[in-house]
Each structure stands twice: as C-alpha cells, then as structure tokens.
Amino acid sequence: MKISIFALFVFLSAITAAIAQTPSAKDVAPTGTLRVAIGVGPAASAFYCVKDAENGKPHGVAVDLGAELGRLLHVPVEYIEYPSSGAITEAADKDAWDVAFMPVDQERAKSVDFGPNYYIFESSYLVPADSAIKTIDDVNKPGVRVIGVANTTTGRAAEASLKFAKFTAFRSVPELIDELRAGRADAVALSRESLKNFSKQFPGSRVLPGAFWRTGVAVAVPKGQKARLAFVTNFLENAKVTGSVRRALDSAGLYEASVAPPEAKRN
Questions:
Q1: What does the pLDDT read at residue 103?
Q2: How many CA within 13 A on the CB side of residue 101?
Q3: Burial profile 6-28: b = 16 or more Cβ within 10 angstroms, e = fewer
Q4: Where are the alpha helices (DSSP H) in the chain?
Q5: What does the pLDDT look like over 205-249, one tens digit per residue?
C-alpha cells in the first residue's frame, strides 16, 4: 500500500509540474488581447501585409496566422502596424507586441527569439527598364546607387555585400518607390516576391536573376519569453502540417511560394 501511495504521489506531482509548465493564454497574450506586430507595405509578401482599399483593414499572411493563433487562445487579436521588420524589431523591448512573423537574421536575434520558419525567401535587385545592369555582380560597381529598407535582413545583407556601390537605407517601401520614381536610385534591394509586386509600379523594370541573400520568415517573440516561444513554435509547426500556412500564402496571392519544411524539435 505504501508503495502504491508513493507511486500515486509521484504521478500526481509529475502531472502538476507538467500543467505548471504548459504555456497558457496569459503567457502568450498577457494583456488579454493578442498583439500581433505586422509590417504594412504597398504590396503583399510572406512578411508584408497590405491594407484593404475600401475599409483600410490589413490583410496578409501574418494577419491570417495571427487570427488563427487568437482563435486557438480564445482571445481577441489586435494588429500593431509597422512600416518594416526593422521597426518591429526596434519595438521588441517596449512591450508593444506579443508575437510577430518576420525575416530571420543574426542581428535581429539579439532583440527577438525566433521559432520555426514558415517560408524561405531570397533577395535580389530590381532595376529600371532602361538600366544597363544585367546581373547581381553588375550592381556592385562604383557609381551605382542602391536603396533598401533600414534595419531589415535584406538591407543589411545588401549593404554588407556591396563593396563599391553606394547603399542608402529608408524607413519603408513607399519611400523606395518615391526614390526610384524620382530617378535617385539605380537598383532596389528587396525579397524576390516583394520585387515582383514592386515591379508593377514600374513598367519594364526587371528583377535580376539569382540572389545575394537567402533566409527564412519565421514566427518571433520578444527576447526571453520562453513559454510564449514554446507555444507559438508548436502552433506554427502545426499550421504548416494542417495547411494553414499554405492557405495564408494563397490568400495573399503567393501561389508559387513554398511552405518551409517541418523543423526538428528544439530543446
């Protein structure tokens, strides 16, 4: 009998510990509302959301994934809008948002903790219709003016790779559009999917073949939120398996975008 009682005590203790370690809605959305940080731009991508022309509401991959996470937690969702992934990163230590979906890089990992990727993207350049630039190597020449978005993984990668061309960073994609339209830039650095949409603003413009940078777009939380990270990691891996990520990409018009493969379980 003593052994049985002891075994029951051990079992109940293990159950209690497991429950205590299980992330709750309060861990993920401590204010009672899930605050999802989203990047808003003029064209949709696996990261950027766009605003509806009629009602002004944002829609895109991050909006759809955030809505599903909110339903899972049984809490309302608020979308906190930023002009870029860099701006989201800058707000990570200000208790301004709970979860985000954005490109991964080592510099950004100093401010946020990343869960699994849901999409792998590559970055290239867009050049105007009359440009003599044909390849990525042609961009890295003296006198070439390259523009990108400040504090983003693509912007950092472009600046690091350009030894001879001049790189200038701006706060948002609309500013890049203004610069190119004014003739003050020779090449625009963005993800390939963003450039495809960007090119619609400039008839005859070309997205250069190849890539100067490749990385993932992943779920992220502010640094040090271990319970929250564990929850959103499981959420996103399930969302890849159940087709939620695929549906979110398709809904954004990204039919050719491939869902990132499942990742090994992290300790």
A1: 94
A2: 29
A3: eeeeeeeeeeeeeeeeebeeebb
A4: 2-21, 25-28, 61-73, 85-90, 136-139, 153-161, 173-181, 192-198, 226-242, 244-251
A5: 999 999 999 999 999 999 999 999 999 999 999 999 999 999 999
Measuring CA to CA, which residue among 64, 58, 37, 53 is closest to residue 247? 64
- Report how many helices (DSSP H) and strands (DSSP E) the chain contains, helices first: 10, 11
Residue 81 identity: E
For the record, the structure tokens of 187 come out as: 């090449």
Domains identified in the chain and CATH numbers? 22-120+216-251 (3.40.190.10), 122-213 (3.40.190.10)
Alpha-carbon distance of 37 to 34, in angstroms, equals: 10
Yes or no: say if 180 and 66 are a contact pair by the CB < 8 Å rule: no
* pLDDT of res. 5: 55
Query: How far apart are the C-alpha atoms of 245 and 237, rounded to whole Å?
Result: 9
Residues of the chain with pLDDT under 70: 1-23, 264-267
β-bridge mates for residue 1, sequence order: none
**Whole-model pTM over 0.90:** no
**Are 254 and 193 in contact, with CB atoms under 8 Å apart?**
yes
* Cα distances (Å, whole numbers) of residue 101 to 11, 48, 104, 110: 38, 9, 9, 16
Please give the pLDDT value at position 11: 38
